[in-house]
What we know:
Layout: H1 2-18, H2 29-32, H3 36-55, H4 66-73, H5 91-99, H6 102-132, H7 137-148, H8 151-175, H9 184-198, H10 200-206, E1 212-213, E2 222-223, H11 227-241, H12 248-267, H13 284-335
Antiparallel strand pairs: 1-2
Helix pairs in contact: 3-6, 3-13, 6-9, 6-10, 8-9, 8-10, 9-13, 12-13
Organism: Neolentinus lepideus HHB14362 ss-1
Transmembrane segments: 154-176, 188-212, 252-271, 291-311
Membrane topology: Multi-pass membrane protein
Amino acid sequence: MSSRKAKVVKTSELQKKSKPTTTAEIPNFESLSFPFAPYTGLVGIHTSLLAFTALYLPRSSLYIPTALYSAYFQVPDDFTVLSQPQSDISGASIITSLTASPVQTLAWTVGGVAFLQTWWGGWVRQWALRAREEGSEGERKAQRQELEKDKVAALNQAFVATAATSVVFFATLVLFGAPLTSHLAHTYLLSLLLSFLAVFPPAYTLGVPLSLTWPSYLSLPQLDSSQPRFVQGLYWARLFAELSPRSPLERALVYPAVGTALGCWLGAIPLALDWDRSWQAWPLPPTYGALLGYVLGSLGAMIVSAVQYFADMNRMNTKIREERGVKDKSSKKKKN
Length: 336
């Protein structure tokens, strides 16, 4: 009996020794499964197209007839740069065309950003759906087809959430000092831009945490308090209230949103300076600050995820080599 107890104790001690003692030794397999090559390539394309949208897309109004453009956007009579298409893309020409009508610049920018964010949100959503797939290849294909059925509904919910949060952003901008009795179109277009940058991708990828249900046509809408919505709300709270993303997918959603908010807030600083420059017109500095913050947030998420990916790969390869070395030593001892 004593010999059996000794054997049991020895085997339990060996099992304890074989188990990792710290969580730092375990690689983050979520970071190992993210699509590194397509993700980095698409981030570069996405950020480049956002820069093009912000700097060059508003200048496409140069090809609108001068009389129609001047009547709609209220361009001053002494402004002659828009009278004919210009091939000069110098810095002065770009600034002049972008600051001629802030409403026109915001309208073109919001349209381009909405198109790009729809494309980008769709790709991130596909990434999230593939990360949830389990089982064999046939089971994964069936799960993918089942989730694709909700694509249109998810897209509609994302647009509704974007429109709803634009009203919240509008009120927030007014509370932070935006003009209330004038420049309403300017302020709302900025709030809509912030919604497309910060809210649309996570709403399309993760789903909207709040939804309204109508028990009947004549009743008032009620807030959906089901358990899936509650869990989804906690997930959103962890990401955007606690700011604690744990995977490359979550970083791709959280970092750009945080960069958008910080960029818009820091971009408002030049508005208080008495330099009397045309580019200080409301809301151009916060607009380009938000776009710059989004681009930097996207690049930051890519860099952090790439560094963690290669670090986890290195740790995993090191662990595999150590296990192989232990097996080789044990096999050599058995042969001897």
